[in-house]
Amino acid sequence: MWSFPSGRRLFVVLLVLVVSVAFGASDAGSTTGGPDVSRAAATPDRARYDVTLRSDADGGHWTGRQRVSFRNASDRPLREVYLRLWGNGEDQCGTPDARSPVTVSHVDGGTPDGLAVNCTALLIALPKPLTRGQRTSVAFDVSITVPDRNARFGREGAYRFLGNALPVLAVHDAKGWHLDPYVATGESFYALTGDFRVRLDHPSALKVPATGHTRTLSGGPGRTVTLSVANRVRDFAWAAGPFRTATETTPGGVRVKSYWAPGTPAAGVRLNRVDAVASIDRFGREFGRYPYGEIDLVMTSGFGGGMEYPGLVLLGTTEEGSAVVHEVAHQWWYGIVGNDEYASPWLDESFAQYANARFYGWDTRDCWSDVYWPDDSTALTGSMAYWSRHPGEYHLVYTAGPCALADLERTLGADTMAQLLKRYAQDHWYGVSTTADFKKAAQALTDEDLGPFWETHRIR
């Protein structure tokens, strides 16, 4: 999601998908008091999503079948899983005249229960307990109707954005079941990496950018099939519309595919393409080589900010460009180095904005002049539960966060900070990071006690 401005306009955005798992009905819905850490490895893991969908004439409605296979990584038997239907977050359970945008039916491989958490969580009881290391799968029909709003899951004119649309597995870890509510400002999402094989059947007049490596095949009369393969990603998103397109390859070998609506300012499109090519190679050098080979830029003039998904970013674009560098940085900070975005949004937003500031060479020595703390209890490391209650303060993860990381760079030294970020990314590659992890990693690189630094910068 987006960041604060400096010579570019401010974008604030929205995001994505996730899902939850269950080990016993008595624990379902809890996010605290989970089992012993040694027995509660994050699970289910090594998920594979096989999806076949067919769209209507304008890409606003998709129907088909989805199968999810997964492994139990925990010592505790897995008795149920949760699907997170994040696309229902805004509309919740719908109305008598309009049902929820994402519906699941005809479930095989388990027994569905009622929808919970405002229709964003569906429990599926497994036919028998799944022990550690065992795999199983569930399959279901899915219907997706793109809402009539300009948002990450929404539409703008003839263009459809399908972020948060596919049901995905939730996570159970040492803290219990992660069944957090959807938030519109910021993200609620916490997902382990999985593999996606997605087949999208659509009218040939529509271009369909999507997460992963894509190729197209002829479908039925007047139709095209877009096939996508994406490995070790936390989510899957796509868009549909009569986009204009261009493709270039960075010096580092990453393919950048650009899709834009005809009314998008040409100067902004050009700038986004240049900055994306430069930033994805630079961040590859700083944090570790981008592993997915391809990234899609989806640009329109009316989209409200920027939104990140693995291998695909949505960008509201003016003549001055967009938040493209911030969203590209999210490919590492949330995508490759994961985090619980509901519990610790600073770990992706502040890190992405710090990378953005470094890319543009902003002078961060006076950046605290833009920061105002409302009271002593406010922490940079607050959860989305806090920021949702205090939406006027959420900008702090974009302002105070990169300022704190810039101060840490001055405290450690530029070379040590670079070493810290690259090593930290490698240590958490395709994994999940926490604030405690980062503090420990930083402390390991200096003899100076960083306790006062964390307290001064409200990193708690």
UniProtKB/TrEMBL annotation:
Pfam families the UniProt entry points to? Peptidase_M1
Q: Which residues form the signal peptide?
A: 1-24
| Residues covered by the Peptidase M1 membrane alanine aminopeptidase domain | 290-456
What the entry lists under InterPro entries is as follows: M1_LTA4H, Peptidase_M1_dom, Peptidase_M4/M1_CTD_sf
Q: Which UniProt keywords apply?
A: Signal
Q: Which SUPFAM superfamilies match?
A: Metalloproteases ('zincins'), catalytic domain
| Coiled-coil zones | none
Name this polypeptide is given: M1 family metallopeptidase
